[in-house]
UniProtKB/TrEMBL annotation:
GO biological-process terms attached to the record: mitochondrion organization
Protein name listed in UniProt: Mitochondrial Rho GTPase
Membrane topology of the entry: Single-pass type IV membrane protein
Gene Ontology MF terms: calcium ion binding; GTP binding; GTPase activity
Occurrences of domain Miro (ranges): 10-177, 388-557
EC number, UniProt record: 3.6.5.-
Species lineage: Eukaryota, Viridiplantae, Streptophyta, Embryophyta, Tracheophyta
Species of provenance: Gossypium anomalum
GO terms for cellular component: mitochondrial outer membrane
Family listed: Belongs to the mitochondrial Rho GTPase family.
Principal localisation: mitochondrion
Amino acid sequence: MPSRSAAGVRTGVRVVVAGDRGTGKSSLISAAASDAFPEYVPAVLPPTRLPSDFYPDGVPVTIVDTSSSMESRVKLIDELKRADAVVLTYACDQPMTLSRLSSFWLPELRKLEIKAPVIVVGCKLDLRDERQPMNLEQVMAPIMQQFREIETCIECSSATLIQVPDVFYYAQKAVLHPTAPLFDQEKQTLKPRCIRALKRIFMLCDHDMDGALSDAELNEFQVKCFNAPLQPAEIVGVKRVVQERIRGGFGYNDELKLRDDILPVPTKHAPDQTVELTNEAIDFLRGIFRLYDSDNDGSLQPSEFDDIFVTAPESPWTVDPYVDAAERTPQGNLTINGFLSEWALMTTLDPSYCLANLICIGYGGDPTSALRVTRRRSVDRKKKQTGKNVFHCFVFGPKKSGKSALLNSFIGRPFSSNYTPTNDVRYVANAVEQIGGSQKTLILQEIPEDGVKKLLSNKECLAACDVAVFLYDSSDEYSWKRSRELLLDVARRGEESGYGVPCLLIAAKDDLDPFPMSLQNSARVTQQLGMEAPIPVGVKLRDSKSVFSRIVSAAEHPHLSIPETEKGKKRKRYRRLVNSSLMFVSVGAAVAVVGLAAYRAYAARKNT
């Protein structure tokens, strides 16, 4: 890859020159750098640097000469793999070297999996036999058809300096302004991301949203692109084709995604902080939902939903973890709660991706006003309250305990008696109405039983978790014992890391016959750990709204329902003992100092 700054801007281009021996590689490089034909050049030149002011883009070019000898093959391969662009040379007076491009060099680049653009250069143009004229386009067209990686073909002469600077200009241009992300050479069409980007640019310029650019809007686009207005007579020509793209590409990188430097994601200063959408961003999203809900039925059909992201690189919610993560109607339409919950989930998991999509669909406010960082959860615990609007809940439990059924119930999916094990982490999100009319967004993250050990191996794994629930099949004694083990493992990790979380036990399948001593065992454990009694839930989870309300309530009280193991209780008692001892020592020391001062004052008066 080319050199880049921290903001992702290229700071240099590395061009490797390769080809058969005697095709003029070294002379080409020397002539380009010195603007003169060299009388003598070594077999292989050291890396040559063209300064940043050599070409209009202001990016320096480093040119690497190579040898085609077998002894230098390893070095040649290494240089090719590091290249941003490759210049392949042939000699205009040696037709065999041209044939070698398609018989050896281009297949070799493919074999080595070199992805850099290729510039084919014919050197020694001044030595071509004039009695054997050649049409470059006719000769190269079939080669370029076979090898699409060729960006440009050009012939030059180092002796007469004809088109020598152009060679490395085209090489630099192929790197700085690549066509591969924009155009599919095989299909001869614009690529989907390019089409989406162009649509977004069009929408940004179409201020009156009438589906067409007026002369004023087109002129504004011209000013933004080229910093100069159009004369009325020029607008007609500009309407036919936009000949150059805006400097900076409207914020796009070479993959047609928004660059990181225009995505001001707020910084989290501690692991137990999270990122949420601001009210301004949520109001914008509500407006977007209403705008695209063309039939005003309170939900988005798939076609309406796709239209929202037509200006984004891709529709973000068609792949995991966002696909099937939100509430939909029986017809498969996305409700307003589902729409906003998907955004909340994306903000929690990938704030940068969320902000990029907000901008792509038309968020016109200051990007810094779209997201906010929440207060540390450890501070919330001390203050016994939280200002968060989105809560992240880990769902633990053994296999067949009902975790997936709980998640499906949360987003309105019907109960299924068919058991399908969950092997990967799964997310769902929805809004939860609380007493008093407030609404919070709850994210449920299902943790597969086999993945708990790996999760807990990370010391900060519970930092972003606001509440954890532990399911067990109340009709199965093993399920209960395994859920209790998971609860104790999580409690111990919370005590060791300082990121203890409120925990709830859920007795699933409560309408089946419980195993003996089920109620007594679970009640005893929760009492020992300082937790609420288990929440009973039936097999089909018909009335599960109260369960989710209690989960949110536990998250809203970050200082309660945090399980304490015996080891944790002993550690807390020890800390209290140490603190009280220190207090006693400090008070005792103060008394001693005061007493000493009084004695000295008394002794002084007595001596007087």
